């Protein structure tokens, strides 16, 4: 998937069936139920939160997705690409990046 998220900019990610996702220089966990998409908000250098999930409503039209925040605002949008388009996760362990 490739796209843009509010406040974060452009992204390229691969979502594995086991709930692990890989970005350019990060890994996280994700899950989807019905039209709700949730991603683990892993701690950044100055962020002490752990295992918190940010959830969004999903709107899909063909290969296009939109993430809609709890307040109804558009938080991001992306395009689903076939397979592992960026070659991520060849040696992934599921652990957080260091």
In short:
The protein has strands spanning 2-5, 9-12, 14-15, 20-22, 27-33, 36-41, 52-61, 64-68, 74-79.
Please tag this protein with its features.
single chain; 98 residues; mainly beta; 9 strands
Radius of gyration: 13 Å
Overall form: globular
| Average pLDDT for all residues | 80
Q: Helix proportion of residues, in percent?
A: under 10%
| Terminus-to-terminus distance | 23 Å
Count of discrete structural domains: 1
The helix/strand order is EEEEEEEEE
Please work out how many helical segments DSSP would assign.
0
- In percent terms, what proportion of residues is strand? over 45%
Number of strands: 9
Unreliable residue stretches: 94-98
Question: What is the strand arrangement across the widest sheet?
Answer: 2-1-9-8-7-6-5-4-3
Instruction: Please outline the major beta sheet.
Output: 9 strands, antiparallel
**Class based on secondary structure composition and strand pairing:** mainly beta
Verbal overview:
- The protein is mainly β and 98 residues long.
- The protein is 0% helix and 48% strand.
- It has a nine-stranded antiparallel beta sheet with strand order 2-1-9-8-7-6-5-4-3, with no helix packed on it.
- It is globular.
């Amino acid at each position: 998937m490739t796209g843009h998220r509010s406040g974060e900019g452009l992204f390229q990610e691969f979502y594995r069936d086991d709930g692990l996702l890989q970005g350019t220089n990060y890994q996280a966990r994700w899950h989807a139920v019905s039209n709700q998409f949730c991603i683990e908000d892993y701690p950044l250098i100055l962020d002490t939160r752990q295992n918190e999930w940010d959830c969004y409503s999903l709107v899909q039209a063909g290969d296009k997705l939109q993430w809609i925040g709890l307040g109804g605002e558009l938080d991001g949008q992306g395009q689903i690409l076939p397979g592992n388009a960026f070659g991520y996760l060849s040696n992934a362990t599921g652990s957080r990046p260091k």
